[in-house]
């Protein structure tokens, strides 16, 4: 039952409390209230409380720091989500713009194809109308020629009838022999119609003119052009005509020349070395 000596740094009051607490008679030991009211114990308790408070404040500070970090991370996550959403919206906007541009291009292509088709239909319609006009013109020419033939034949028959009445019966055979050459001469004077499909133009410069079916198309209005048809006739009389359309200078001539005449590019017909007889100029 030997008790170790207390260190010197323990106060005498505290030594008395300790000895008092170690009393063998428990009735003489101090109560808890008495112990807690002791200055040293109170100071120790206050020190423990301060340490506990300090520890609690540190924990709260750490918790607050963690909360701030969480909030900052949450804000950063929200910012990243906002940036990702903005990028997604930008990508979607670009995709929609590309789709819109593609649709516009397809509509433009469809419009160009429709315009091209309509233009081709208009060209075909124009060609058809021009062909019909040429057919009507040639039919009218044929009808005019047949009418002339009928008229001349009627006149020839009338002449023969008048000669038969004026001359005696004995000379009727001589009159008939003379009337036959006259009838042949009248019939030969009727201009025959040319076959338009046989007419092939002699064009000096293809870059200025070209032939399209029965048409001669003059492409360059800044240059003169002379187109020949060889041969039209070798002798006698023939009917040859055409239609002159949409010329800015309104200068057009038709004539006849020797088959050996040569016309160069960008020249009027009278520039040829051979004489050219201009029958009509409009």
Reported for the largest beta sheet, the result is:
2 strands, antiparallel
Question: Could you tell me the radius of gyration in angstroms?
Answer: 64 Å
Backbone structural class: mainly alpha
Distance between the termini: 158 Å
Low-confidence stretches: 169-173, 175-179, 182-191
| Major beta sheet, strand line-up | 1-4
Shape assignment: rod-shaped
Portion of residues within helices: 55-70%
How many E strands?
Answer: 6
- H/E element order: HHHHEEEEEE
The pLDDT mean sits at: 76
Strand-residue fraction?
Answer: 5-15%
Tell me about this structure:
The chain is mainly alpha-helical and 282 residues long. Helix content is 57%, strand content 8%. The chain contains 4 helices and 6 strands. The strands form 3 sheets. A two-stranded antiparallel ribbon has the order 1-4. Strand 2 and strand 3 (215-218) form a beta hairpin. Helix 3 packs antiparallel against helix 4 (172-188). It is rod-shaped and about 200 Å long.
Topology:
Elements: H1 12-21, H2 32-36, H3 39-166, H4 172-188, E1 201-202, E2 209-212, E3 215-218, E4 228-229, E5 253-257, E6 276-281
Antiparallel strand pairs: 1-4, 2-3, 5-6
Could you write a compact summary of the structure shown?
With 282 residues, the chain is mainly α. Among the domains are: 119-188, no CATH class; 191-282, no CATH class.
């Amino acid at each position: 039952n030997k008790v170790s000596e207390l260190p010197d740094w323990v106060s005498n009051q505290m030594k008395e409390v300790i000895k008092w607490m170690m009393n063998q008679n428990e009735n003489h030991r101090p109560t808890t209230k008495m112990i807690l009211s002791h200055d040293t114990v109170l100071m120790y308790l206050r020190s423990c409380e301060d340490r506990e408070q300090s520890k609690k404040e540190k924990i709260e500070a750490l918790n607050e720091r963690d909360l701030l970090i969480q909030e900052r991370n949450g804000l950063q996550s929200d910012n990243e989500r906002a940036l990702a959403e903005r990028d997604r919206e930008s990508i979607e906007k670009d995709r929609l713009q590309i789709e819109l541009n593609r649709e516009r291009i397809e509509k433009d292509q469809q419009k160009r194809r429709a315009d091209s088709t309509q233009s081709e239909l208009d060209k075909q319609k124009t060609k058809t109308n021009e062909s019909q006009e040429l057919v009507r013109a040639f039919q009218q020419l044929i009808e005019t020629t047949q009418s002339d033939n009928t008229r001349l034949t009627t006149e020839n028959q009338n002449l023969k009838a008048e000669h038969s009445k004026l001359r005696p019966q004995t000379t009727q055979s001589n009159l008939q022999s003379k009337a036959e050459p006259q009838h042949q001469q009248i019939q030969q004077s009727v201009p025959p119609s040319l076959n338009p499909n046989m007419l092939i133009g002699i064009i000096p410069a293809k870059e200025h003119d070209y032939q399209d079916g029965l048409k001669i198309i003059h492409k360059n209005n800044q240059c003169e052009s002379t187109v020949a048809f060889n041969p039209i006739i070798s002798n006698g009389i023939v009917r040859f005509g055409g239609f002159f359309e949409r010329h800015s200078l309104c200068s057009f001539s038709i004539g006849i020349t020797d088959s050996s005449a040569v016309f160069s590019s960008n020249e009027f017909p009278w520039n040829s070395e051979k004489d050219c007889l201009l029958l009509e100029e409009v």
